[in-house]
Amino acid sequence: MNEKNSLGLNICFKDEKDPIKLFSEWFEEAKKSEINVPNAFALGTAGKNGFPTVRIILLKDFNKDGFVFYTNLKSSKSIAINENSKISMCFHWKSLLRQVRIVGSATQVTDKEADEYYNSRPYDSRIGAWASDQSSILNKRDDLIESINKYKTKFSKDEKIPRPSHWSGWRLNPIEIEFWLDGKYRIHERLKYYKSQNLWEKVLLNP
User: What is the pLDDT of residues 5-61, one digit of tens each?
Assistant: First the structure.
């Protein structure tokens, strides 16, 4: 018989008051069991046209201040965020039969944070940030390869490559975080945290 927490949920939900701590515990479990990238998540944005767009990207950092990812500031996701800062994330860990949904507003990370992360990336990834005009129309693949080779000539592996001004990161400051566990006959277990006067409250949700 599965152990339960004080709310009657599976013990994996713990009894945490802080959803960031619970996310950290679930994330550590995912890193042990997911075959590929446990930090992959679906990012949902909606720009001024009102149409929602979702794509899979990678979480690079998180703490009490929010969840961070990096991208080209000219990309479609960045354009949408500039038009409407309200965004969402969804992590789905199939190996654990768990899901986490996060809703909040995005703000750009500091130049210091962006520089530190950019400098930690492999050489080819740093070159790619210069070479790719992300989300713009590409006439032919050879054009991209040519651009990559141009920047490899400009920046050698032995020198410090400056971060492009059009490349940075976004931080989602959460106002809602929902933890979901698959249940038999679709009787799933759902625990939602939400901010109330800057403090976290939690409620159970029907499946």
Answer: 999 999 999 999 999 999 999 999 999 999 899 999 999 999 999 999 999 999 999
> Which residues are part of the catalytic machinery?
186
Assess contact for 119 and 160: CB atoms under 8 A.
yes
Taking the C-alpha atoms of residue 87 and residue 80, their distance in angstroms, rounded to an integer, is 9
Phi, psi dihedral angles at 180 (to 5 degrees) = -130, 135
Tell me which fold the domain 11-119+167-205 belongs to. Pnp Oxidase; Chain A (2.30.110)
Q: What is the distance between the alpha carbons of residues 147 and 170, in angstroms, rounded to a whole number?
A: 26
Indicate the burial class of 113 (C-beta count within 10 angstroms; 0-12, 13-18, 19 or more). middle
Measured CA to CA in angstroms, residue 160 lies from 101, 122, 126, 145, 201 at distances of 38, 12, 10, 22, 46
Are the beta carbons of 38 and 30 closer than 8 angstroms?
A: yes
Domain boundaries, the chain: 11-119+167-205
CA dist., res. 198 & res. 98, Å (int): 27
